[in-house]
Amino acid sequence: MNFFGPFRTTARPRALGALAAFAATAASAAPARADVSSWLSLGFGAASLEGGGREQQPLRFTLPVDLGMGSPPSGAVMVGVGTRVIPYFGDGTAAAAYARAATQGYVVGSWGAAVDAGGFTRLSGEGGPGFIASVNLGVPWGVIVTGSYALGDGGERVASCTVGVDLLRLTVYRLSGEAAWLNPKPAWRPEPAAESAPPR
């Protein structure tokens, strides 16, 4: 006895029809670009650390490194996620994971801003896990100025200010300063405005 006879005779044509409809839809769809935006930045500055079982300390040098990925740069606002390694010279190292919202100008290496918020934890040194927030001001040629504040378990408080460069804002995504240094193949470039039809 063939238990699957009725299933095969009715379901197979339906499956083939659905497959054909899907193929026709895919073939007729216009190609779409789904390029993501990303960042890789290096900074240098100073941080003030206090609490967390320590007295307020002199300023410590810090050298944060950021890496992340977000939505396409074609939108007015980019959202994404990133990670940060933050060495505090003489006071250990922390690591952070955060969400970012940035303006299009920031992403393409021009004037703009990005805001980060997330959590951090200590890899070494005194202190514990906590919350970190940053404001990044973008300047042409990939330069960034960042102010950060972190509040950790046990009352640790860290305030820092750094200046750095985003290597991808300077190269892959840069649309600023092309009069002096052309970027021949940026990851994204706005479509040229369509010319209006001449009046009749």
Description:
The structure is a single chain. The chain has three helices and nine strands. The chain is α+β, with helices and mostly antiparallel strands. It has an eight-stranded antiparallel beta barrel with strand order 1-3-4-5-6-7-8-9. The longest helix has 24 residues, at about 5-30. Residues about 1-10 and about 20-35 have low confidence and may be disordered.
Helix-strand blueprint:
Blueprint: H1 5-28, E1 37-50, E2 60-62, E3 65-70, E4 77-87, E5 93-103, H2 104-107, E6 112-124, E7 130-139, E8 143-152, E9 157-166, H3 167-170
Antiparallel strand pairs: 1-2, 1-3, 1-9, 3-4, 4-5, 5-6, 6-7, 7-8, 8-9
First-to-last CA distance: 77 Å
Please tell me what the overall shape is: elongated
Largest sheet, strands/sense/barrel: 8 strands, antiparallel, barrel
* Overall pLDDT level: 83
Helix content: 10-25%
Q: Cα-atom Rg, whole angstroms?
A: 25 Å
Number of distinct beta strands = 9
Beta-strand portion reads 35-45%
Number of helices: 3
Unreliable runs: 1-12, 22-34
H/E series: HEEEEEHEEEEH
Strand line-up across the major sheet: 1-3-4-5-6-7-8-9
Q: Structural class, from helix and strand content?
A: alpha+beta
